[in-house]
Write a structure and sequence with these properties.
The chain is mainly beta. It has one helix at residues 230-234, and strands spanning 2-11, 14-22, 28-35, 41-52, 54-59, 63-69, 75-81, 91-94, 103-107, 115-122, 129-136, 145-146, 154-162, 165-177, 180-189, 192-211, 214-221, 239-245, 251-256. It has a 7-stranded antiparallel β-sheet, with no helix packed on it. The chain has a 4-stranded antiparallel β-sheet with strand order 1-2-3-4, with no helix packed on it. Strands 5-6-7-8 form a 4-stranded antiparallel β-sheet, with no helix packed on it. The longest helix has 5 residues, at 230-234.
Length: 261
Amino acid sequence: REIVWFEVVPSSRGALCVWAEQSSKTEATILALSLDDRGKPRGVPSQVVRNVVGWQAVATARGAALAIRTAAGALTIQEIDADAQPLGAPTPVIAKGAGADFDFVRVESAGKKPSFAFAWTDHSQLDSTVVTTWVLDGSPANVPFVVSEEVGGAALASINVAGGAVYVTWEEIGRRLAGGRRLHIANVGSSGVGITTALDVHGATSEIASDGSGVALVGNVRSCAANVSDEKCAAVAPAPTVMRFDSKLQITSVSPISVPE
Protein backbone atom coordinates (compact mmCIF):
# COMPACT_ATOMS: atom_id res chain seq x y z
CA ARG A 1 0.00 0.00 0.00
CA GLU A 2 1.12 3.54 -0.75
CA ILE A 3 -0.04 6.76 0.89
CA VAL A 4 -0.91 9.10 -2.00
CA TRP A 5 -2.57 11.97 -0.10
CA PHE A 6 -3.05 13.26 3.42
CA GLU A 7 -4.67 16.25 5.11
CA VAL A 8 -4.74 17.52 8.69
CA VAL A 9 -7.74 19.59 9.76
CA PRO A 10 -8.35 21.19 13.19
CA SER A 11 -11.04 19.75 15.44
CA SER A 12 -12.56 20.44 18.87
CA ARG A 13 -10.28 17.76 20.35
CA GLY A 14 -7.07 18.72 18.54
CA ALA A 15 -6.96 17.64 14.91
CA LEU A 16 -7.98 14.96 12.43
CA CYS A 17 -5.47 13.36 10.10
CA VAL A 18 -7.04 11.92 6.95
CA TRP A 19 -5.15 10.03 4.26
CA ALA A 20 -5.57 7.85 1.18
CA GLU A 21 -3.87 4.45 0.88
CA GLN A 22 -3.68 3.16 -2.67
CA SER A 23 -3.59 -0.61 -3.14
CA SER A 24 -4.18 -0.61 -6.91
CA LYS A 25 -3.26 1.66 -9.81
CA THR A 26 -6.49 3.66 -9.50
CA GLU A 27 -8.58 3.10 -6.38
CA ALA A 28 -7.78 3.90 -2.77
CA THR A 29 -9.05 3.54 0.79
CA ILE A 30 -9.58 6.63 2.96
CA LEU A 31 -8.58 6.37 6.63
CA ALA A 32 -8.79 8.87 9.50
CA LEU A 33 -7.12 9.24 12.89
CA SER A 34 -7.87 11.58 15.79
CA LEU A 35 -4.92 13.57 17.18
CA ASP A 36 -4.72 15.39 20.51
CA ASP A 37 -3.60 19.01 20.81
CA ARG A 38 0.03 17.86 20.90
CA GLY A 39 -0.28 15.82 17.71
CA LYS A 40 -0.29 12.48 19.54
CA PRO A 41 -2.56 9.80 18.00
CA ARG A 42 -5.73 9.07 19.92
CA GLY A 43 -6.90 5.50 19.38
CA VAL A 44 -6.40 3.66 16.08
CA PRO A 45 -7.18 4.69 12.49
CA SER A 46 -10.71 4.18 11.23
CA GLN A 47 -11.54 3.15 7.68
CA VAL A 48 -13.91 5.74 6.23
CA VAL A 49 -14.50 4.56 2.67
CA ARG A 50 -13.02 2.19 0.07
CA ASN A 51 -12.65 2.02 -3.72
CA VAL A 52 -12.47 5.74 -4.47
CA VAL A 53 -10.31 7.73 -6.89
CA GLY A 54 -10.67 11.30 -5.61
CA TRP A 55 -10.90 13.00 -2.22
CA GLN A 56 -10.86 16.34 -0.38
CA ALA A 57 -11.33 17.26 3.28
CA VAL A 58 -12.54 20.34 5.19
CA ALA A 59 -13.08 21.04 8.88
CA THR A 60 -16.61 21.25 10.32
CA ALA A 61 -18.04 22.03 13.75
CA ARG A 62 -18.52 18.30 14.40
CA GLY A 63 -15.14 17.16 13.03
CA ALA A 64 -14.47 16.99 9.30
CA ALA A 65 -16.22 16.37 6.00
CA LEU A 66 -14.71 14.23 3.27
CA ALA A 67 -15.75 14.69 -0.35
CA ILE A 68 -15.29 11.38 -2.15
CA ARG A 69 -15.23 10.71 -5.92
CA THR A 70 -15.65 7.31 -7.60
CA ALA A 71 -14.30 6.21 -10.98
CA ALA A 72 -17.70 6.99 -12.54
CA GLY A 73 -17.51 10.59 -11.32
CA ALA A 74 -20.02 10.19 -8.48
CA LEU A 75 -19.52 12.56 -5.53
CA THR A 76 -20.59 12.00 -1.93
CA ILE A 77 -19.93 13.67 1.42
CA GLN A 78 -18.96 11.58 4.42
CA GLU A 79 -18.74 13.43 7.72
CA ILE A 80 -16.64 12.16 10.62
CA ASP A 81 -16.59 13.28 14.25
CA ALA A 82 -13.63 14.51 16.31
CA ASP A 83 -12.81 10.86 17.15
CA ALA A 84 -12.49 10.06 13.42
CA GLN A 85 -15.67 7.97 13.41
CA PRO A 86 -18.20 8.22 10.54
CA LEU A 87 -21.33 10.29 11.25
CA GLY A 88 -24.25 8.61 9.52
CA ALA A 89 -24.47 7.55 5.90
CA PRO A 90 -22.79 9.43 3.02
CA THR A 91 -24.72 12.31 1.45
CA PRO A 92 -25.02 12.03 -2.37
CA VAL A 93 -23.88 15.10 -4.31
CA ILE A 94 -23.95 13.95 -7.95
CA ALA A 95 -24.38 10.49 -9.46
CA LYS A 96 -21.79 10.84 -12.25
CA GLY A 97 -19.80 13.31 -14.32
CA ALA A 98 -17.74 15.14 -11.69
CA GLY A 99 -14.27 15.95 -12.99
CA ALA A 100 -11.10 14.71 -11.32
CA ASP A 101 -10.26 18.34 -10.46
CA PHE A 102 -13.29 18.74 -8.15
CA ASP A 103 -12.95 20.72 -4.94
CA PHE A 104 -15.29 21.93 -2.20
CA VAL A 105 -15.51 24.39 0.69
CA ARG A 106 -17.50 24.75 3.89
CA VAL A 107 -19.77 27.81 3.86
CA GLU A 108 -20.88 29.32 7.17
CA SER A 109 -22.28 32.80 7.75
CA ALA A 110 -24.55 34.40 10.35
CA GLY A 111 -28.25 33.89 9.76
CA LYS A 112 -27.78 31.26 7.05
CA LYS A 113 -27.85 27.49 7.15
CA PRO A 114 -24.34 25.99 6.87
CA SER A 115 -23.59 24.27 3.58
CA PHE A 116 -20.96 22.81 1.28
CA ALA A 117 -20.18 24.31 -2.13
CA PHE A 118 -18.63 22.14 -4.86
CA ALA A 119 -17.03 22.94 -8.20
CA TRP A 120 -15.51 20.81 -10.96
CA THR A 121 -14.82 20.71 -14.69
CA ASP A 122 -17.51 18.90 -16.69
CA HIS A 123 -16.16 17.21 -19.83
CA SER A 124 -19.48 15.72 -21.02
CA GLN A 125 -19.96 18.31 -23.80
CA LEU A 126 -17.79 19.35 -26.74
CA ASP A 127 -16.65 22.44 -24.80
CA SER A 128 -15.79 21.70 -21.19
CA THR A 129 -17.58 23.81 -18.57
CA VAL A 130 -17.09 24.61 -14.90
CA VAL A 131 -20.03 23.42 -12.81
CA THR A 132 -21.01 24.05 -9.20
CA THR A 133 -23.56 22.70 -6.77
CA TRP A 134 -24.44 23.29 -3.12
CA VAL A 135 -25.46 20.95 -0.31
CA LEU A 136 -27.22 22.58 2.64
CA ASP A 137 -26.89 20.69 5.92
CA GLY A 138 -29.67 18.14 6.21
CA SER A 139 -30.90 18.70 2.65
CA PRO A 140 -30.35 17.00 -0.73
CA ALA A 141 -27.82 18.55 -3.11
CA ASN A 142 -29.03 21.38 -5.34
CA VAL A 143 -29.21 20.82 -9.07
CA PRO A 144 -25.72 21.56 -10.51
CA PHE A 145 -25.41 24.64 -12.73
CA VAL A 146 -22.78 25.97 -15.12
CA VAL A 147 -20.75 29.02 -14.09
CA SER A 148 -18.57 29.35 -17.23
CA GLU A 149 -19.88 30.22 -20.69
CA GLU A 150 -16.66 30.60 -22.71
CA VAL A 151 -16.54 29.27 -26.27
CA GLY A 152 -13.76 26.72 -26.52
CA GLY A 153 -14.15 25.45 -22.99
CA ALA A 154 -13.08 26.19 -19.43
CA ALA A 155 -11.23 24.45 -16.61
CA LEU A 156 -11.59 24.91 -12.86
CA ALA A 157 -8.73 26.77 -11.19
CA SER A 158 -10.01 27.09 -7.61
CA ILE A 159 -12.96 27.48 -5.27
CA ASN A 160 -12.59 29.71 -2.21
CA VAL A 161 -14.78 30.91 0.63
CA ALA A 162 -14.33 34.27 2.36
CA GLY A 163 -16.71 36.11 4.66
CA GLY A 164 -19.45 33.57 3.93
CA ALA A 165 -19.19 34.18 0.16
CA VAL A 166 -17.96 31.65 -2.40
CA TYR A 167 -15.64 32.51 -5.30
CA VAL A 168 -15.06 30.17 -8.25
CA THR A 169 -12.09 30.78 -10.56
CA TRP A 170 -11.65 29.17 -13.96
CA GLU A 171 -9.36 29.36 -16.97
CA GLU A 172 -10.46 29.83 -20.57
CA ILE A 173 -9.28 26.84 -22.60
CA GLY A 174 -10.18 28.22 -26.02
CA ARG A 175 -8.31 31.48 -25.54
CA ARG A 176 -4.59 31.02 -25.13
CA LEU A 177 -2.42 34.05 -24.55
CA ALA A 178 1.22 34.24 -25.53
CA GLY A 179 2.89 33.03 -22.37
CA GLY A 180 -0.27 33.37 -20.30
CA ARG A 181 -3.95 32.60 -19.76
CA ARG A 182 -7.26 34.34 -19.15
CA LEU A 183 -8.77 33.75 -15.70
CA HIS A 184 -12.35 34.49 -14.63
CA ILE A 185 -13.41 34.94 -10.99
CA ALA A 186 -17.10 34.76 -10.04
CA ASN A 187 -19.02 35.32 -6.84
CA VAL A 188 -21.30 32.27 -6.80
CA GLY A 189 -24.34 31.59 -4.64
CA SER A 190 -26.48 28.49 -4.18
CA SER A 191 -28.89 29.60 -6.91
CA GLY A 192 -26.63 31.17 -9.51
CA VAL A 193 -23.67 33.30 -10.56
CA GLY A 194 -23.29 36.85 -9.29
CA ILE A 195 -20.54 39.33 -10.08
CA THR A 196 -17.70 38.20 -12.34
CA THR A 197 -14.37 39.66 -13.40
CA ALA A 198 -11.57 38.56 -15.72
CA LEU A 199 -7.84 39.17 -15.95
CA ASP A 200 -4.82 37.94 -17.87
CA VAL A 201 -2.15 36.06 -15.94
CA HIS A 202 1.24 35.30 -17.46
CA GLY A 203 3.60 32.46 -16.63
CA ALA A 204 2.86 28.85 -15.81
CA THR A 205 1.46 29.29 -12.30
CA SER A 206 -0.73 31.55 -10.23
CA GLU A 207 -2.55 31.22 -6.93
CA ILE A 208 -5.96 32.37 -5.68
CA ALA A 209 -6.53 32.54 -1.90
CA SER A 210 -9.25 33.78 0.44
CA ASP A 211 -8.48 37.28 1.70
CA GLY A 212 -10.76 39.01 4.20
CA SER A 213 -14.19 39.23 2.57
CA GLY A 214 -12.76 38.70 -0.93
CA VAL A 215 -9.88 36.96 -2.66
CA ALA A 216 -6.26 37.65 -3.55
CA LEU A 217 -4.33 36.57 -6.63
CA VAL A 218 -0.59 36.01 -6.72
CA GLY A 219 0.86 35.81 -10.21
CA ASN A 220 2.58 37.55 -13.10
CA VAL A 221 0.22 40.31 -14.27
CA ARG A 222 0.37 43.66 -16.00
CA SER A 223 -0.61 46.34 -13.48
CA CYS A 224 -1.62 49.61 -15.12
CA ALA A 225 -3.35 52.72 -13.79
CA ALA A 226 -6.97 53.25 -14.83
CA ASN A 227 -6.05 56.14 -17.11
CA VAL A 228 -3.52 54.08 -19.12
CA SER A 229 -4.80 52.91 -22.52
CA ASP A 230 -5.04 49.21 -23.38
CA GLU A 231 -2.37 49.66 -26.05
CA LYS A 232 0.12 51.18 -23.61
CA CYS A 233 -0.74 48.65 -20.93
CA ALA A 234 -0.04 45.80 -23.36
CA ALA A 235 3.54 47.11 -23.64
CA VAL A 236 4.08 46.84 -19.88
CA ALA A 237 6.02 43.72 -18.88
CA PRO A 238 4.13 41.33 -16.58
CA ALA A 239 5.60 41.19 -13.07
CA PRO A 240 5.03 39.13 -9.91
CA THR A 241 2.15 40.87 -8.13
CA VAL A 242 -0.37 40.43 -5.32
CA MET A 243 -3.77 41.67 -6.50
CA ARG A 244 -6.58 41.90 -3.93
CA PHE A 245 -10.32 41.93 -4.67
CA ASP A 246 -13.19 42.82 -2.35
CA SER A 247 -16.54 41.01 -2.10
CA LYS A 248 -17.76 42.83 -5.25
CA LEU A 249 -14.59 41.74 -7.09
CA GLN A 250 -13.32 45.29 -7.30
CA ILE A 251 -9.53 45.59 -7.11
CA THR A 252 -8.61 47.10 -3.75
CA SER A 253 -4.82 46.91 -3.97
CA VAL A 254 -2.04 45.96 -6.37
CA SER A 255 1.31 45.19 -4.75
CA PRO A 256 4.32 44.26 -6.89
CA ILE A 257 6.52 41.58 -5.35
CA SER A 258 10.21 42.47 -5.25
CA VAL A 259 13.07 40.31 -4.06
CA PRO A 260 16.22 42.11 -2.87
CA GLU A 261 19.30 41.12 -4.80
